[in-house]
Amino acid sequence: MVTTEILNQPYSLKPEQIDFYHQNRYIKLKNVLDAETLNHFNLAISKKVNELNKEYQPLEERSTYGKAFLQLFNLWEQDKAIKELIFSKRLAKIASDLMQIEGVRLYHDQALFKEAGGGITPWHADQHYWPLSTDKTITAWIPLQATPLEMGPLEFSAGSHEILEGRELSIGDDSEVQIEKRLKVTDYKHVIEPFDAGEISYHSGWVFHRAGANTTNQMRKVMTIIYMDKHMTLKEPTNSGQINDWKTWCPGAKIGEVINSPLNPVLY
């Protein structure tokens, strides 16, 4: 029987790691999950993605966004085993500690499986889509296997949360071109590194990031968990994506009030 006790054991962050996150708005952390736990969730999440995936269109016929990954949401509602990962106190406490807040709620989870031969994930900032009132948001990016550069690991523009230009762009060809052009004339460091098995990154909602193509013959399997401050309130949406997210991930939440829907439990 696989033991997943590590999911509720604390992961100690050093003060310099918290400082690094606040300066750069991303951090990569090694040995967050052990090999047995990672393999357990690789199998469980892969099985559920295979069951739910409805994308049958050939890669070459899809848009840039469609080529980037297979995307499935809130798997915690679909599978008890996956819920154990999403509700992990270990992962949620890291999110809370990095943001230096009292605790976090779930915004939603997301499986991002980049197929063999899958294309780039264009430059973007996640919070463009979120009707959230503050920047106290963070995403745990959890590769379900070691992820070399050839597989398309996450890339970061360190500290680029300070850039306002480009925040209005939805993910796609336009965001890739315009944001890359903007980043080239700044001093923000472009960080592209492989991920070891069990290594996880955390990044804020407004930091710009992308991923390369998967040039291997294997699926790049990633699970993500998006956290927000447990006191987060809903703001007036400013684009269609935020309206959709309000209805989908924060059902019943009211503008100006704490987002306390059944889909947004406090995880830590």
Characterise this structure.
- This protein is of the alpha+beta class and 268 residues long.
- The chain is built from 7 helices and 10 strands.
Short description:
With 268 residues, this protein is α+β, with helices and mostly antiparallel strands.
Order of helices and strands: HEHHEHHEEEEHEEEEH
As residue ranges, the low-confidence spans are none
Provide the residue-averaged pLDDT: 94
* Rg calculated over all Cα atoms: 17 Å
Number of domains: 1
Shape category: globular
The proportion of residues forming helix, as a percent range, comes to: 25-40%
Strand order of the largest sheet: 1-8-5-10-3-2
Q: Give the full name of the CATH homologous superfamily.
A: q2cbj1_9rhob like domain
Q: Fill in the CATH topology.
A: Jelly Rolls
Give the strand content. Answer: 15-25%
Please write the CATH class name. Mainly Beta
- Based on secondary structure, the structural category is alpha+beta
How would a crystallographer describe the biggest sheet? 6 strands, antiparallel
**Overall number of strands:** 10
Calculate the terminal CA-CA distance, rounded to whole Å: 27 Å
CATH architecture: Sandwich
Number of helices: 7
